[in-house]
Please model this.
Amino acid sequence: METAIEVAGPEPMTPAAQTEAEQLDREICADIVWLSGAKEQADHRIARIGGLLWRMSQGELYRALGFPSIHRYMRDRVSRFENLCVSQLYACKEVAEQLTGHVSPAEIEAMGITKAHELAKAKRATGRAPSAELVSKAATEKTEQFKESVAEEFALRADEPRPKGKWYDFGGFFADADDRAVIERALRCACLVDPPIQPTESDVAQRREIFLRFCMEFLATHEESLTPQMPGRVNKGDVI
Model:
């Protein structure tokens, strides 16, 4: 005869936790309603929601509202709005999760989700927290300038001089498994072709060299066959 094993359920919510959950929920719902019709300053409001959702998740306060998981809670709260989705809420919650303890909620909201995302991405990649000086720059620098500041602090080695020029942000795109396989093969090729790119170089220096090799190879193969009127084309004999 088998003996039933009792599995303890989650601890019941305290009155204080119940009150906190309800207050957070009111703030989150109000912000979601605002975002559903927002045209301006959404960057800051989304950053604020990220912090509220992180608090809701960290303390499992969603249980006080009758939800078994933070995912179910977020899905319910955005279900009425066609222009919002759960993935957006996850993204801003993750930013708050990465920066909590290093950047205050007020600072995250003030800089907006775009700049906060750059900080969170750098911290996730390196394991290092942003300096107070870098956080303060978020309040005064425009987004592109701030991306450059983030790159200077996180991407360059301490013994590496700052490269000439301005930070070039290629952006990103969605890639499936086949796309990634092709891209990774091309990256390996670019690294190994003579002269090979040295692994001792910084990530920034390696990315720059790889990208330039792609560009030069493509131009050498195809540029001559294109019309001379191609915008930005450098013709033989032109003075640069």
Summary: The two ends are 89 Å apart (CA to CA).
